[in-house]
Amino acid sequence: xNSPIRAPSTSSCSYIRPHSCRxxxxxxxxxxLLLPQAICTAQKLHRCSGGHTEASSNVNxxxxxxxxxxxxxxxxxxxxxxxxxxxxxxxxxEALVTSTTQDVSDTPLIGDDKIGxxxxxxxxxxxxxDVQPFLFNLFADPDIIRLPRLFSFLQKPLAQFVxxxxxxxxxxxxxxxxxxxxxxxxxxxxxxxxxxxxxxxxVPANVYVGMRYWHPFTEEAIELIxxxxxxxxxxxxxxxxxxxSTSGSSLRLLESIFREDEYLVNMQHTVIPSWYQREGYIxxxxxxxxxxxxxxxxxxxxxxxxxxxxxxxxxxxEAGDPYKAEMEECVDLIMEELEKRKITNAYTLAYxxxxxxxxxxxxxxxxxxxxxxxxxxxSLLAVPISFVSEHIETLEEIDxxxxxxxxxxxxxxxxxxxxxxxxxxxxxxxADAVIESLPYVGAMAVSNLEARQSLVxxxxxxxxxxxxxxxxxxxxxPILVWEWGWTKSAETWNGRAAMxxxxxxxxxxxxxxxxxLHQWGIxxxxx
Length: 527
Fold this sequence. Notes:
Number of domains: 3
Organism: Medicago truncatula (Barrel medic)
Helix content: 25-40%
Keywords: Chloroplast, Heme biosynthesis, Iron, Lyase, Plastid, Porphyrin biosynthesis
Order of helices and strands: HEEEHEEHHHEHEHHEHEHHEHEHEHHHH
Pfam family, one: Ferrochelatase
CATH architecture of the largest domain: 3-Layer(aba) Sandwich
Radius of gyration: 24 Å
Distance between the termini: 34 Å
Oligomer: single chain
Family: Belongs to the ferrochelatase family.
Pathway: Porphyrin-containing compound metabolism; protoheme biosynthesis; protoheme from protoporphyrin-IX: step 1/1
Largest sheet: 4 strands, parallel
């Protein structure tokens, strides 16, 4: 597959980033992205800063018009929720937009409240012994491996089988980067720097870390939040772009925890689901890229290679995951910032870390590297665009596997932008995002513990997830309709049924130690 190679100029760019009120305003304003899909759709003509921008039909509806009412020229869009519901939960929309020149600490936001910030992240094994149980937790998540409902009872047995099968190779990878993932250590450091930054901005807050698949688990962080008596909580996933498989999975878990706990039901909270468009984040990424480019002999000849973590295509096409659209716009925003600095290198975006037989977002990173080598690219700067901390995908997959592949493909000069980590501009901007979200923290709209069906306020866990599925159904499988005959759907389902049967057979062989695979001496080959 040919991968798109893009230059910053709109005249030569292979695609044009859709314009929206949010995009237009992001140049001059900071805002937390608080459930924009609950405010308006993308098929309207809007007015931004006195100028009209028409949203094309392919504009991602998750990213348009949350800031629209700051302009007197706003034209009303069709809401996805009722005006009465919005009015109950929303402050005046003018308050959503905070000028970059405004001191966000000027207005008292705390009072007698105890502020907490919950950072959500993936987690990673800290030792080699942690690898297999970590992989089990990962693959037991239905947002990672999605089985048809009929076979949902196989989720944990399948996770056990896959984790045992993959553990040896994964251990090799973690051994090559020091024997474990540095993610917890780095996330703890980010939490501490965020706490300091908030304090410097006159917002004392406790910052907690909740991992999805390893310690400290989200449940552990919640217990600390309750112990400390937090009354207002800002939930901040450390994923710049929203995806069902990352932020969405963490928020689904958080939702289930909230619903079972009286304290949490009544605690005020809000969620910042994605923040890739924030000025501080964009500038921090541009700073790192600009610095690394200077290390090449001919910086202007370097191809900027954005590598993002992939997701299955079905997440985007069937489940409405905004990840791909947000990722593409994020890359555009970074390149626009670099262009302001007279950096006009060619660039491209590809997706890494695919697993299994299903189709993932393309172009793939490995295939794109080979293709660039064939096209004569000699200098490549890899930019891990979806990662804010170093972990195995950057330290082993990019630094080792993709670097080796690039050199074998004829690319002579290789560089890699480090993950943001505790970069000061980045941390300060995260603190601003937290502060700007505080006016929109609200209580769950329930009269008692039995009435837990109401949506919590704008940007909250449940309302955010409900925007993807108002009927609270599970995520759809890649093929929604079971069709009989020689159809793509039938072949897909038949293949899945056969695969599940084979995996179940292998699982029984592994757990019992008996069966024809052992008798024939086949199964030991997998160990």
